[in-house]
Specification:
By secondary structure, this protein is an alpha/beta fold. The chain has one domain (about 35-279): Metallo-dependent phosphatases (Purple Acid Phosphatase, chain A, domain 2, 4-Layer Sandwich). Helices cover about 35% and strands about 20% of the residues. It contains 8 helices and 14 strands. The protein has helices spanning about 5-15, 45-55, 80-95, 105-110, 125-135, 140-150, 195-205, 210-220; strands at about 20-25, 25-30, 35-40, 60-65, 100, 115-120, 120, 155-160, 165, 225, 235-240, 240-245, 255-260, 275. The chain has a 7-stranded mixed beta sheet with strand order 1-2-8-9-10-12-11. Strand 4 (about 60-65), helix 3 (about 80-95) and strand 5 (about 100) form a beta-alpha-beta unit. Helix 1 (about 5-15) packs across helix 3 (about 80-95).
Length: about 280
């Protein structure tokens, strides 16, 4: 191995896969206190820097990050979100018991060889070109290691207070394709294709109250913290058991709570919200 970035990605992947609190695709964090949960980052360097700065200045918090890749092009036309992903992987290596991730649909598309089109351009192809521009002759090695890191990410993090953090949940009309056993078992190739449980969980939208009640009972949780939405206001309450957050702009937010004390509900979600601009 020639490039240190590749080594960082591989080390972070191993830490994610071999996390002592991980069972299948869920990390169960019991007995922890302060928790910070981000929404989608999508290459927002200022947002990630502010979140990490708050993490560094806090006393032993847990930080959960999601969907770091696929950001806007820089002045030269390149997606540089691989740099942010590397920063997050390095943080995992430095703080293996305090930094956690949940897999997003953009992560899935990137490592599975898919494509997502935004504004007429493919963001997965743009990410690959960004890695080539950044790492030159060693780009293949770095990219392959980064894909192993993305593939290693869990689907959810669960806390004692009944909160489950995941990127999304299945769409109501696609529930027949969702098998909750995917959370208890390693991911198979069939799971990441359309109609597979991982795919349907990460791409799902428009959840309904009755469906959330069903999922809560099925998974043994009380409240869901999600991403996967473009939310100008940063926070989207989803009656009755969920809220989605977005962290990729100064108007976005993170959610902070004490998993040992706070019981989150839709009625009081606002008091746990911290705006990116105020971090």
């Amino acid at each position: 191995m020639n490039n240190p970035a590749a080594e960082i990605f591989l080390n972070a992947a191993e830490l994610c896969m071999n996390c002592p609190q991980r069972h299948g695709n869920v990390v169960n964090l019991s007995g922890v206190g302060r928790v910070m949960v981000s929404g989608d980052i999508h290459g927002a360097r200022v947002s990630l820097n502010k979140i990490v700065s708050r993490f560094n200045s806090s006393e032993q918090p847990i930080l959960i990050l999601q969907e770091i890749i696929h950001g806007p092009a820089d002045a030269a036309g390149f997606d540089r979100s691989a740099e942010l992903l590397l920063k997050a992987a390095r943080l995992k290596c430095q703080h293996p018991d305090r930094i956690y991730f949940v897999m997003g649909n953009h992560d899935l598309a990137q490592f599975a060889g898919g494509e997502i089109t935004k504004d007429g351009s493919g963001v997965c192809a743009a990410f690959r070109e960004g890695v080539k521009n950044e790492f030159g002759d060693e780009a293949y090695e770095v990219y392959s290691a980064a894909m192993k890191f993305l593939r290693a990410l869990p689907l959810a993090v669960r806390f004692d207070n009944g909160t489950l953090v995941s990127h999304s949940l299945p769409s109501p009309s696609r529930m027949k394709f969702f098998d909750p056993a995917v959370l208890d078992n390693p991911t198979l190739d069939a799971d990441i294709k359309r109609g597979g449980a991982v795919y349907e969980m990460l791409w799902g939208r428009d959840q309904r109250p009755e469906q959330l009640d069903e999922l809560a009972k099925m998974l043994g949780v009380d409240f869901f913290l999600l991403g996967h939405r473009h939310i100008t206001a940063g926070l989207l309450p989803i009656p009755r058991r969920a809220a989605a957050i977005n962290s990729n702009a100064l108007g976005g937010c993170i959610v902070e709570f004490d998993a040992g004390i706070d019981t989150i509900s839709l009625a009081d979600i606002e008091k746990y919200v911290k705006r990116i601009a105020q971090l």
